[in-house]
Design goal:
Chain lengths: 80, 357, 249
């Protein structure tokens, strides 16, 4: 189970992450964040293969991707 | 040594290991000397692509915490003005040598003092000051350039040594008696790589409302401290002088000769020689204006320092001016002539007891 | 629990002043990722330009300096000469590097200074409201060429990578873009190579990144990426223009 956390106040709603998701799991919110911008969110229960394309595109470092499995322990640095 | 070479060697003695320059007459001796000397002491010498590049390399090395120097003249110093504003605004210590030549524009390569305004009032944009030192002999060039690095580090401020083509090119005996710096304390604010500490940022940009004004307040406070502590000047024969000459650099040398002659003639003429042009010896002039009857500024310009003399004298006394422009160097004879002309007027002024303002 | 991706700790996680979809955001994140992955925070010193990226020092958690417009390569030279073992990079936009700073970039490259320049090319002056840049494309509209750039009136765009390829002293020159995840990863690899070039003292390295400016291109973010792929790449083809590894030096 992969969890994609999108910080709604760092996100500016640029939408660069939306088309790169193979499962269309990211969608625009319909409310504004604290800065008056409309961010995106990862749909509840939507699929994620952990490809990280959304995080790779994000200009605001708003996305964090965590998997619930503990098969390997890569530590916190992640794989860029 | 020539004045130019003395400036370069004094920098090396003071621990300067990074020199960036661009050739321009009449200070080419500095860049030529540094090309040979810097490698000898394990320093860095770069002939940059322009005076602008040189002052920005200076900015980098100063930001990195090193003692660093550049030198130029006239048009080259004009090119560096943006850099000077950035250096002052980022509070970076460094030394800039200006060997003044005739101007404006391409001008000529003879001595002048027509960059006084640019140096002292700020040729770059914004409210800033640089410390300006004015030597009048090759020995003094060596002493002041050495001190310039200490002053720069003490106040995190650019310091300029304001010479002229004559001082730069003439040869006099010089002794480097100040101890060669072998240890310089580290600068906590410098960019060295944020290893085990919070990051350091070198900037002069404060776009958030109110921050820039606050920062400017700090700068002005610093400048006040410098004005209170770092004024330097020399007085010759001023104790009972009726006429006080005010001159720096080459004009001060001429003034010394003039005073010998006027003393022989029985006149009471003295000299106040500013050594720091900024901070200007305002208090000394104010004090002298209580007893002396008149002042005369002698400059190789159309009249720049004379304005600061007038401001310091506060309108109590007449301030005369003798100047030569466009690379002309006054002769003792011609200045003496103009002094003789005004002496009767000066002597006619009654001595009124001045009320302390 | 395994982290597949976390924003690097060398990036201050605060909302940036960059517009939505701005290329600066992506490149800065990549730089921060590399510094974090390589544990180089204590050794890196950056130089920020004048332009939209002027506030880079608010986002990157490393020692960093401002520079006057166009002068980062000279400032980087001054810093590298004092700290030759540190990783020094200069980040510049197209006005900074290709207009006012053209002398500095060429001479710094010619001197073979061991620094890395990351050149964000978005073919426009964003910070000042959308004027023409030296890299603005022919027919592209900006505030100072409102009818579209014309060669007769405004001159030709300048290709920096190609220009610098003629300068000995360059060890690595590469042009990349940010238009899709693969290209973003290529950009990251190119910057890494630039840093390696510096650390192995092979000479000057520059990575030109074709980057979007959606607001002043008057496009949405996705169309901006298309513009780079379809139009910008015609004038500025991606590729490697100098590579010390291939030349066996």
């Amino acid at each position: 189970m992969v969890m994609v956390k999108i910080d709604k106040n760092l996100c500016k709603g640029c939408e660069l992450c939306i088309p790169v998701c193979h499962y269309n799991s990211i969608e625009m919110c319909n409310t504004l964040n604290d800065y008056g911008l409309m961010p995106v969110y990862f749909k509840d229960g939507a699929s994620c293969s952990g490809c990280r394309h959304c995080a790779i595109m994000c200009p605001d470092a708003a996305i964090e991707i965590i998997t619930a499995q503990s098969t390997t322990n890569d530590g916190e640095r992640g794989r860029g | 040594m020539t004045g130019n070479e003395a400036a370069a060697e004094a920098a090396v003695q003071a621990g300067c290991r990074f020199y960036y320059g661009y050739p321009i007459t009449p200070q080419n001796e500095i860049i030529n000397y540094m090309a040979v000397r810097m490698p000898q002491v394990g320093g860095t010498f770069i002939q940059a692509e322009s005076e602008i590049a040189a002052v920005n390399m200076l900015y980098g090395s100063a930001a990195a915490g090193a003692r660093t120097m550049t030198s130029s003249s006239g048009p080259g110093i004009s090119l560096k003005q943006e850099g000077l504003s950035y250096l002052a605004g980022s509070e970076l210590p460094c030394v800039i040598v200006n060997v003044q030549r005739g101007g404006p524009g391409l001008g000529d390569i003879s001595p002048s003092q027509s960059d006084y305004f640019q140096a002292v009032k700020g040729g770059g944009h914004g409210d800033y000051r640089i410390i300006v030192l004015a030597p009048s002999s090759v020995q003094e060039i060596a002493d002041l350039v050495y001190d310039a690095f200490d002053l720069a580090d003490k106040y995190r401020n650019p310091v300029m040594m304001l010479g002229d083509a004559q001082l730069g090119q003439m040869m006099e005996p010089v002794e480097f008696y100040k101890p060669a710096k072998t240890y310089l304390p580290p600068k906590k604010w410098a960019l060295t790589g944020a290893d085990g500490r919070p990051k350091n940022v070198i900037k002069s940009f404060y776009p958030v409302k109110g921050e820039l004004e606050k920062f400017n307040g700090r700068l002005q406070e610093k400048y006040r401290r410098i004005e209170e502590t770092e004024v330097r000047y020399e007085e010759i024969n001023t104790k009972d002088a009726e006429l006080v000459l005010v001159a720096y650099g080459t004009c001060a040398r001429i003034s010394r000769e003039i005073i010998k002659k006027t003393t022989e003639m029985g006149h009471r003429v003295g000299l106040l020689r500013p050594i720091t042009l900024w901070p200007f010896p305002k208090e000394a002039l104010k004090r002298l204006s209580q007893k002396a009857k008149a002042f005369m500024a002698i400059e190789m310009s159309a009249g720049q320092m004379v304005e600061d003399v007038k401001l310091s004298v506060l309108g109590r006394r007449e301030v005369y001016f003798y100047g030569r422009t466009g690379g002309g160097v006054p002769s003792t004879k011609e200045v003496l002539k103009s002094i003789i002309e005004v002496l009767p007027k000066i002597k006619a002024v009654g001595s009124v007891e001045m009320i302390e303002i | 629990m395994e982290t597949l991706y976390a924003p690097p700790k060398t990036l201050h996680r605060i909302p940036t002043h960059y517009c939505p979809g701005c290329g600066h955001g992506i490149v800065q994140r990549l730089i921060a990722e590399i510094i974090y992955e390589w544990d180089m925070r204590g050794k890196t010193i950056g130089i920020a330009p004048v332009g939209c990226a002027v506030l880079a020092y608010n986002y990157l958690d490393i020692d960093i300096s401002e520079a006057a417009h166009g002068r980062p390569p000279a400032v980087a030279t001054g810093i590298k000469r004092v700290h030759p073992d540190n990783l020094i990079f200069a980040y510049q936009g197209d006005g900074d590097l290709a207009a006012i700073g053209l002398a500095e970039i060429i001479h710094t490259a010619a001197r073979g200074e061991n620094i890395t320049v990351i050149f964000n090319n978005n073919a426009i002056y964003g910070m000042t409201n959308g004027q023409m840049a030296p890299t603005t494309l022919v027919d592209q509209r900006t505030t100072t060429c409102p009818e579209g750039r014309s060669v007769d009136e405004h001159g030709h765009p300048i290709r920096i990578c190609e220009l610098l390829a003629t300068v000995d002293g360059c060890a690595y020159i590469s042009r990349v873009s940010l238009t899709n995840p693969k290209n973003v990863q290529k950009t990251k690899a190119a910057i890494k190579k630039g840093f390696r070039t510096q650390m192995r003292r092979k000479g000057f390295s520059i990575i030109e990144v074709l980057s979007p400016c959606p607001v002043y291109w008057r496009m949405n973010t996705l169309d901006s990426m298309k513009f780079i792929d379809e139009e910008m790449s015609q004038t500025y083809p991606s590729g490697i223009f100098k590579d010390w590894e291939k030349e066996g030096s």
